[in-house]
Design a protein that fits this description.
The radius of gyration is 37 Å and the shape is extended. The chain has 25 helices and 19 strands. The longest helix is centred in the middle third of the chain and has 34 residues. Strands 16-5-18-17 form a four-stranded antiparallel beta sheet.
């Protein structure tokens, strides 16, 4: 198609949507696999359209990889429900937009498509579109022109559908100024706390009240359901005893990665340079060598004359004035002949002539700092690393076999244990929370253990990667359903709770009375205000989130202004606003940036509301059970 219409285009909108090229490259590269996978189980349905588990899995892997590369999340967060929900919602929104695009008959013409693609920087050579680069890039990503261009067209249609909404997301100058004033506003405030704990000695709770609370809430005062399980694990460490690394492999790895094993050793050295210039003739080089040999002979007679001879004869102007001193340097900082010589010398020894591209050097090492990492000292570490790498490789090869075996032989873990030389172990009683901690903070395996397949059908769980290179499968030994706790177990806790609730009511009553008097202009004794602080929305100056929220919600039409809030079981919080500064902060550029950010945020809200409206109109169902089973 491009051959037909390419001459029409020279990129106008390509730069605006450049980031979208990553989407078709990421998604269309797996289309051939997905299309050949047959009928896939749906993780969600959007107005009759399925989102397959394969599509979800690939999107989840791509998102996790990107977030991990950016360093924004640790592994526990990447495996958590928030990331899964984010990925699924993105896929649902994408399907909703695609449906809306078809319904509203959005269109991208061949000319628009060609203009965009031929303007992509990836396909430019000497300022013009290169067919060769285009074909090469698609080939490297295993894409046909038809599939790639269809992906770009789909992305442009999505952008077209959203552009109209984002453009109406703007605010007038007066509203922007008001918003920026509020955003940059500073308030001088003070807070005081009326604490619940100060009222505890005024409270009495009777045994009858404790018993009544127990009877009323008995159904919630439960010992959680518990299980005892047997489990089998397979990790990369298990293969360490089965791999071997000989000395030749260790030495080869050290030689190939010598730069990585330089340690933190540094050398301080001085030198005398006799240069022979660029493109020196043999005669010129010999003349420089003879001169250097004369100086070396002089040094051999009187090594203490190094500095004076460097000042007098060295042709390196930067170091000559300092007696030849080059300062400290690590490996890789100097030309190789000089580095090899310097790092092979002892302190205060003088080298022979060392030839480099700059001339002949006479070197004196004056100081050694840090530690070197020679082959002998590093050999055990390198051998261990290579053994673990081999063990990891073997783990990857065997992981699927292990997973298939515990699934296919679901009535016992013993076949897998026998096959892999493992040992089936048993746990103590575990509930969902303690079990997740037991299995390296992994929620998924506990969800599987408490599933019907395990509790009722007595099958093995699937093999779950509880941590990097560590698989675990489990099966039920014994189950205890949730049971009510006895009154004796909980009565002390109930009494403490009731006392706390009663004390909190007293604190709240005193706080509300004090607030009423303060707002009426009366003086209230016994209130301890903290020293005044100046806060803005980004700088809390030590105030709690609760106090900061109250500080900017307080009606400050008349100063001083007072407000208050019950602080859960902690007591009652009083806040006083004494002064407000509403002046615009920042220079013109900063204000312009702030206005752009506010308009962008407003556009984003319009777009989010649009997507939500599409979702409300469409029938969206999610297979929660299938979603829960995904790693």
């Amino acid at each position: 198609m491009l051959d037909r219409i390419r001459t029409v285009a020279q990129g106008w909108a390509g730069k605006a949507l450049l980031a979208l090229i990553t989407i078709p490259f990421a998604l269309f590269g797996i289309d051939s696999y997905l299309s050949s996978a047959g009928s896939n189980v749906a993780v969600a349905k959007v107005a009759g359209n399925n989102i397959s588990i394969q599509e979800y899995d690939n999107a989840l892997k791509n998102t996790r990889s990107r977030l991990q590369t950016e360093g924004k999340f640790d592994q526990a967060q990447l495996d958590g429900p928030e990331v899964k929900s984010l990925v699924l919602n993105q896929l649902i929104n994408k399907q909703l937009l695609n449906d809306e695009i078809r319904r509203a008959k959005f269109a991208i013409s061949d000319v628009q498509l060609a203009t965009y693609i031929t303007g992509m920087p990836e396909f430019q050579k000497d300022g013009n579109f290169s067919q060769e680069l285009y074909d090469q890039t698609l080939s490297q990503n295993q894409l046909t022109p038809t599939r790639f261009e269809a992906g770009i067209r789909a992305d442009m249609l999505t952008q077209q559908a959203q552009d109209g909404l984002t453009k109406i997301g703007f605010a007038t100058h007066s509203r922007l100024d008001s918003a920026i004033k509020l955003s940059n506003q500073q308030r001088v405030v003070s807070v005081a706390e009326i604490k619940t704990k100060d009222f505890l000695d005024q409270v009495t709770v009777t045994p009858a009240e404790v018993k009544a609370y127990y009877e009323q809430h008995k159904s919630k005062l439960l010992v959680p359901e518990q299980v005892r399980v047997e489990f089998l694990s397979m990790s990369a460490v298990d293969f360490m005893r089965k791999v071997n690394v000989d000395d030749a492999e260790v030495k080869k790895f050290y030689d190939e990665n010598a730069a990585k094993f330089s340690g933190n050793e540094q050398r301080r050295a001085s030198h005398i340079l006799i240069g022979f210039g660029v493109s020196a003739t043999p005669a010129q080089k010999q003349q420089a060598k003879s001169r250097a040999e004369e100086i070396l002979a002089e040094l051999n007679k009187n090594p203490k004359a190094f500095e004076s001879l460097a000042i007098k004869h060295s042709q390196d102007p930067g170091s000559a004035v300092k007696g030849g001193d080059l300062g400290s340097f690590a490996r890789g900082a100097m030309v190789k002949p000089f580095e090899d010589a310097a790092f092979g010398m002892k302190v205060n020894k003088i080298s022979g002539l060392v030839e480099s591209e700059f001339g002949y050097h006479i070197i004196k090492v004056t100081e050694i700092t840090g530690t070197s990492s020679d082959y002998t000292s590093l050999k055990p570490q390198i051998k261990g690393d290579l053994m673990y790498q081999k063990a990891q490789d073997e783990f990857v090869k065997q992981a699927e076999v292990f997973s298939n075996l515990v699934y296919e032989q679901s009535g016992s873990l013993q076949p897998a244990a026998k096959s892999f030389g493992g040992q089936v172990q048993q746990s103590d009683w575990l509930n969902r929370e303690s079990g997740a901690k037991f299995f390296k903070n992994n929620q998924k395996i506990m969800a599987l253990i408490f599933s019907d397949e395990v509790l009722k059908d007595h099958r093995n769980t699937e093999a779950v990667e509880v941590s990097s290179n560590h698989l675990v499968a489990a099966r039920l030994i014994e189950y205890k359903p949730a049971t009510p706790r006895s009154f004796d177990e909980v009565k002390a806790g109930i009494e403490s709770l009731l006392k706390l609730e009663a004390a909190a009511k007293l604190a709240k009553a005193k706080g509300e009375a004090a607030l009423q008097d303060l707002q009426a202009g009366k003086t209230v004794s016994g209130i301890e205000w903290i020293p005044e602080v100046t806060v803005d929305r980004k700088n809390a100056q030590g105030l709690t989130d609760l106090a900061m929220g109250l500080a900017f919600k307080t009606n400050a039409a008349k100063l001083p202004a007072y407000s208050g809030l019950a602080d859960s079981k902690q007591g009652y919080l009083l806040l006083k606003v004494l002064k407000i500064d509403t002046a615009l902060a920042g220079d013109a550029d900063a204000l312009s940036t702030a206005k752009s950010e506010l308009n962008a945020a407003l556009s984003s809200e319009y777009l989010a509301a649009y997507k939500e409206s599409l979702r409300l109109k469409a029938k969206v169902t999610v297979n929660e059970r299938l979603l829960l089973s995904q790693p």
